Amino acid sequence: MKLVVKFNAVLLVIFAVSLAGVAYFARGLLQQQARDEVLQNAKIMMESAAASRTYTVKQIAPLLETQMKYNFLPQSVPAYAATEVFNEVHKKFPDYSYKEATLNPTNPRDRATDWEADVVNIFRQAPDRQELFGERDTPLGRAMYMARPLQIKNEACLVCHSTVENAPKTMIDVYGTANGFGWKLNEIIGAQVVSIQMATAMKRADDSFKVFMTSLVAAFVFLFVALNLMLQVMVIRPMARAS
Question: Does residue 6 sit within a domain?
Fold first, then answer.
């Protein structure tokens, strides 16, 4: 077998093994970076929801206190405010969603689905747990979720949610008497849940992987041709003349 054939055969084997190893680790790294990006966005959304709740409690609710005696205004409820804000965000960024999933909500739209109820029950079984992360399959693809417990820490909440008799009549006129009662102090009644579809982030990771691997193959082809030219000029031809 000619020297150039042996040289090229060894070079191709080395490249194939190296390419497979680099592809395996690069793909895993890029996918992990995509997951980290989605998780970071989820944390930002969760903190934004907390800020909306705090703003509502401290600045909006006091302004509506007098009107609440005559008409129940959901805008004074922290959960309602946070949900409305992120419903507007969801219109422009459909991959992002937020819900205050509750086992026994006053507003029916907050009722927890089966998987959300499982998340709430995890918090109820481990009251000291402050956050929960996970991934789940959805009709739109793989999604990551981040959750925090909703716990009754303020007795003022029980005015509306302890018994039907103690609840404001204006609230009952809006939501009725079937749901949202029987809550207790320090009870975990639900969870704040941020969900983000991972398809966009994963597509960016796949696109970056393809560009990286294409560049790597192009670099090898250039190196392969250059080494063969050098082999011909510096080894094969001098040896032929010496022969």
Answer: no
